[in-house]
Write a structure and sequence with these properties.
This protein has six helices and six strands; from the N terminus they run ββααβαααβββα. With 156 residues, the chain is an alpha+beta fold. The protein starts with a strand and ends in an 11-residue tail after the last helix.
């Protein structure tokens, strides 16, 4: 019997990961992205219940963060655009919100951009000033990689 209970693209969730989650252990990027995929699917089934939104994979920031710490980052030039390639002018103009889960030192936070009024909100279950500096960095990286998708500068 396979331990795999869900697959979608780069996302694979194993039963063993769910067992760890149920035991209050570390929350994996696959858990967050699976929830994001379910949220997207549900919003497509019942669009009147949801604000139109874009979900950025949690893998986007974790890969950016890890390779930015690496001395050889510039030599690797890791392509993270595949995690945000669906964010186009059309998808941005159709969306009201951009949901960006962020993991930093095993702590999860959520960055939510209101694309219509150009305001960013940061949700943190452990509000500490040490988590706040990552906000402009995440927004900067997203904007730099898909700048042509936005009518205005989202780094506000």
């Amino acid at each position: 019997m396979s331990d795999t209970i869900y697959t979608s693209g780069d996302i694979i969730v194993y039963r063993s990961q769910i067992d760890k989650l149920l035991k209050s252990e570390y929350l994996d990027t696959n858990h967050i992205d699976t929830f994001g995929n379910f949220l997207v699917e549900k919003s497509q089934l019942c669009p009147s219940l949801y604000e139109p939104f874009l979900f950025v994979s949690s893998l986007y920031w974790i890969i950016k963060f890890i390779f930015s710490l690496c001395q050889a980052y510039h030599a690797f030039k890791v392509d993270t655009t595949r995690y945000i390639s669906y964010i186009t002018k059309e998808s941005v103009s159709a969306a009201n919100l951009m949901l960006v889960p962020i993991i930093e030192q095993s702590h999860w936070t959520l960055l939510v951009g209101n694309l219509k009024i150009k305001v960013w909100d940061f949700y943190d279950s452990l509000p500490k000033k040490t988590h706040i500096p990552v906000i402009p960095e995440v927004i900067f990286h997203i904007y730099e990689e898909i700048r042509n998708s936005f009518e205005t500068d989202i780094r506000v």
